[in-house]
Amino acid sequence: MNDERTSQPFDMVVIGATGDLARRKLIPSLYFLDHYGNLPSPGRIFAVSRQSGTREGYLEAIAESARRHIGEAEFSPDAWQSFSERIDYVSMKAAEARSYSQLSQLLEEGRDRARIFYLATAPDLYGEISHTFREVDVVTPRSRIVLEKPIGSDLASATAINASVGEVFAEDQIYRIDHYLGKETVQNLMALRFGNALFEPMWRSEHIDHVQITVAETLGIEGRGAYYDTAGALRDMVQNHLLQLLCLVAMEPPSRIEQDDIRNEKIKVLHALRPIAGDEVAHKTVRGQYGEGAIGGQSVVGYLDEGDIPPDSTTETFVALRAEIENWRWAGVPFYLRTGKRMSHQVSEIIIQFKSVPHLLFKDQAGVIQSNRLVIRLQPDESIKLSLMIKVPGTGMVLRRENLNLNLAELDKRTPLAYERLLLDIIRGSATLFMHRTEVEEAWRWIDTILRGWAERGDPPRYYGAGTWGPPESIALVVRDQRYWYEHLVGRRKKSKGATATGA
């Protein structure tokens, strides 16, 4: 990323620096930024944790995990040594004013720099820690605070957290981070729509049959049982990741690619989401919970047998939804959202399914004319694929589907990590890829309606075996519209050599 505008001198305070997020994402991403010349000098990183220890001990511990998460191919001992010179370690309790003497003294040396507070902590501490910052006078006009998701567990708690943090920091100083928005393919989604004359005229209900957004994980709860059982898939994934992707797919073209313009268009989409309430909850949502099964040939236990999970838990590990956007562009176009743990494959992708051609010009011997499809894959391999009908070489007019592929992993230029891009934007003071307070609260407003519907009905989550694509009811959610999930579409096409369902 060193071809972009340079950064600025900064001090970054990472609260929770010994936690999983810091070890897996933040420190490796900062290493890459430093290694590829994107961090300025001076630029300091203060690792803050409640654990007692020394700078040397912290660096020794973090180097081991950093090497693992950076990868042997890109980990350079010399580069790590250079990067680690930026890091200092402070043992303190972030919510206790009396703990701040050392950190305050260190920060005072760079009072004119951009000052970034990254809260890699539980969200219910955001407000308390922010007020402690103000009490000990470490907040400057150039300060920024970074909040990880989930912000709250419902609209009321999210509003309270936003209000409490907002008493200390102005809205333009608050960076609510969703790492999906830093993925290269998400950036390319906007480039596809707004940088090409081909797609934007087609990006509407007259030409698009439906949209699918899937975020599937093969992992289980990975030691996060205490948190996950109070959250579930709807709060943990749909409220932020999936709704953010939906907004980027559905929003109107902004007047400029600037933070306020993009945020305003996303907020309009959230306003236009039709609430799923009452009897519609039973017909437009599916919640599931995984049981034992096998993934990649390895047997795995069911959710109720994971550590820290109550034996009578009804927390969902899978959600599928049929969402609708009530505006002129998207009227009548269903958006199918789906996320789950312990599923068949790890994949995050957006499927734009176009409508069939209005008139079948070719004769029967040409084969089945399949509608065009745009597949935007975010992980594990970032790529964009557009399916088209072409003529099979030879005599006669026989058509088949072929794909135009853009595999970002095959490009010569290195693709930065999502957190890498977002951290650099925070240092630069660019909030384009971060959520506004209103976005968070509008998303919770829509989610709360579903949560209330589930609570009123009291239905337990549907069972699905680990290593599958979720409960059978999730398939029925789209099949009753004469549509299929993408993996089933591909399977049916291979099996029947071209037969597809209506709108597929």
Supply the key terms:
504 residues, globular, 14 helices, single chain, Rossmann fold, alpha/beta, six-stranded parallel sheet, disordered N terminus, Dihydrodipicolinate Reductase, domain 2, nine-stranded mixed sheet
Task: Please sum up the structure shown.
With 504 residues, this protein is α/β, with parallel strands linked by helices.
What does it look like?
The chain is α/β, with parallel strands linked by helices. The chain folds into two domains: 10-148, NAD(P)-binding Rossmann-like Domain (Rossmann fold, 3-Layer(aba) Sandwich), CATH 3.40.50.720; 181-355 and 435-496, Dihydrodipicolinate Reductase, domain 2, CATH 3.30.360. The protein has 14 helices and 17 strands. Strands 16-15-14-13-7-12-11-8-17 form a nine-stranded mixed beta sheet, with helices on both faces. Helix 1 (20-35) links the parallel strand 1 and strand 2 (43-49).
Content-based structural category = alpha/beta
How many helix segments? 14
Proportion in β-strands: 15-25%
Summed over residues and divided by their number, the pLDDT gives a mean of 90
CATH architecture heading of the largest domain: 2-Layer Sandwich
Distance between the termini: 39 Å
- CATH 4th-level superfamily of the largest domain: Dihydrodipicolinate Reductase, domain 2
Instruction: Say what the CATH topology of the largest domain is.
Output: Dihydrodipicolinate Reductase, domain 2
List how many beta strands DSSP finds.
Answer: 17
Indicate the CATH class of the largest domain.
Alpha Beta
What is the helix content? 25-40%
Major sheet: 9 strands, mixed
Q: Can you tell me the residue ranges where pLDDT is under 50 for at least 5 consecutive residues?
A: 1-5, 495-504
Strand line-up across the major sheet: 16-15-14-13-7-12-11-8-17
Q: How many domains? A: 2
Radius of gyration: 24 Å
| Global outline | globular
